[in-house]
Amino acid sequence: MSEAQHLVERHTILSVVAGSRAFGLSTAASDIDRRGVYVAPTAGFWRLLKPPTHVEGPLPEQFSWEVERFCELALSANPNILEVLHSPLVEKRSALGDELRDLAPAFLSRRAHTTFARYAGAQFTKAENRRVREGEPRWKHVMHMLRLMISRASLLESGTPHIDAGPYRERLLAVRRGELSWGEVRTWRDELSVRLDQALAKSPLPEHPDAIRVENWLISVRRRSLTDGSSPV
Which segments of the chain does DSSP mark as H helices, in order? Predict the structure, then answer.
């Protein structure tokens, strides 16, 4: 095990199962995708070689972010990061992990529309290019793109994240199996794009996230780590 992976083992404050299992879209072949947040000890930032901002492992399909990097990405409305905060499948949550989950509303804003519109557009272009080049896209990726569009539209409409695929599960799984035509997928995608734009206009979410609240919490985490001589968990 590498030194970075030991950091994850010792200082993880939040670890969840993400991906298809969290979204209610898993099949018998689905992996267990683990995502987490760790807090590097404050003293580690005094060295020229800083603690890593992210670490793969030590478990298979496990990826973790250092808390500062995690917060930066969450403030930019990164969809994969926000879903870590709202996964129903929590495997580990320390006192700081509880604080981070409680802080989740501070990360939410209308930026979710802009960030995701770029992401969805890029993913759809990749899928269409692959379909032209190889005859069909990666249907699993198309399914997750549509799921994210549904999730983001719901977030903008209600102000609350919805992770589970819910009533869209069967149709999304049909996409994964390649049972919908590309024309049907395009139509659904276009309908969701319209829904996203309409949701933005009436969204109860603030224009910007509460970066000051997040920063104050980060400062308190660093101070507590320094006082304790290690990363508080």
Answer: 3-11, 20-23, 67-75, 79-86, 95-102, 104-107, 111-134, 139-158, 169-176, 182-202, 211-228
In this structure, the answer to whether residues 134 and 157 fall within a common structural domain is yes
Total structural domains within the chain: 2
d(CA 176, CA 230): 45
Which tens digit of pLDDT belongs to each residue from 130-160? Answer: 999 998 999 999 999 999 899 989 999 999 8
Domain span at 124: 111-202
Pinpoint the alpha helices (H) of 103-181.
104-107, 111-134, 139-158, 169-176
Q: Is the pTM of this model over 0.85?
A: yes
pLDDT digits (tens, 9 = 90+) for 56-76: 999 888 999 999 999 999 999
